[in-house]
Amino acid sequence: MAGNRRWVDGNLNHPDRDPDRRRLLAQNQQPYGVILSCIDSRVPPELLFDTGLGDLFVMRTGGLAVGPVVTGSVEYGPMTGGTPLIIVLGHQRCGAVAAAYKALREGPPLPGNLQAIVEALRPAYERMDSPGADPVETMTRIQVELTAGELRRNDDLAPLVDTNALSVVGAYYSLDTGQVEVLDGAPA
Question: Most buried in the list 50, 124, 150, 188, measured by CB within 10 Å?
Answer without folding.
Answer: 124
